[in-house]
Amino acid sequence: MFTRARANLRRRIRDWAWKRQGPDGHRIVIVQRRLYILPTAQGLLFGVTVFVMLLGSMNYANSMGFILTFLLASLGVVAMNAIHANLLGLELTPGRAAPVFAGETAHFHLAVRNPGKRARVAVTLGADDDDRTVTSDVPATRQSIAPVPRVTTHRGWQELGRLSLETTYPLGLFRAWSYLYLDWRVLVYPAPAAHAPALPPPLGGRGLGRPNDQGEDDFSGLRQYQRGDSPRRIAWKASAREQELLTKRFTGIGEETRWLDFALLPGLPDEQRLAVLCRWVLLAHAAGVVYGLRLPGVSLAPSSGDEHRDRCLKALALYGFAPQGQVQT
Q1: pTM score, two decimals?
Q2: How far is 114 from 72, CA to CA, in rounded Å?
Q3: Low-confidence ranges of the chain (pLDDT < 70)
Q4: What kind of fold does domain 23-187 have according to CATH?
Q5: DSSP 131-150
Q6: Burial class of residue 94 (count of CB atoms within 10 Å of its CB; 0-12, 13-18, 19+)
Q7: Contact (CB, 8 A) for 76 and 42
Q8: 171-220: per-residue pLDDT in tens?
Q9: Domain boundaries, the chain
């Protein structure tokens, strides 16, 4: 009963805060109107103790009791102001959230800047409906990067949701917090299948119908290394001689080209097909082979490298969520 009443009270406070604040922009400054403060359980016990001491001092007219009581009460007031000041004026700017696979923990990198001349200690950040938090100190006139954790549950875009910024420093008698409503999301790839069939066989001939420099037929020279080139194609000896990374170029059709096709997995539910395709993409990338991806309504032309892998994983993550036309890359 108490737990339900507490949950309802927290929900009402959050709804009231949302109506009062509304959505936040790209940069947030913690001002006084958006800071909230309440005593913790220890703070309530401290307050009851001070009140009992006050009653006892009044009953026995004990001057030393009054001195101790007012000293402790003053300490509580000072602690409340210190906790409030520990968050006031902080500037927060959202950064990049790297894609993850479903079930992994995404980290939203939030830049927390302290414009004041006093360090901010034990500042805690966390998604409002997630038990995982990160606590850090922010030095005076410096900036700290806080990787806010968020457990992912499904593929596609996942919103960060409401973010809580809080502290109980220095004495833990009060809790000061602020709600942040950031339009922030992370791309979640499908979880790779734990057990997947072997990669589809290569085309094994002249199936592409046009030459490209991804083939393995004839060596045609060297070029400067480009991001995403397979390590197998780097000319290490020539690179050491020229003091720069060089990649081997080939002409030919590319007999190792493979198509990772949604239609090759009949009888499986869509999500399991996507999980297998995700595993195939990772295996093909690790092997350094040239591969293409076919999904209903979308086709990614054969290629290789990190960028191609990321495009394929993004197509798998967003499959079925939005209209996807024919894509050729």
Answers
A1: 0.71
A2: 30
A3: 1-2, 6, 203-223, 226-230, 242, 249-256, 322-329
A4: Immunoglobulin-like (2.60.40)
A5: S-EEEEEE-TT-EEEEEEEE
A6: buried
A7: no
A8: 999 999 998 888 888 999 999 998 888 888 886 544 333 344 444 445 55
A9: 23-187, 252-317
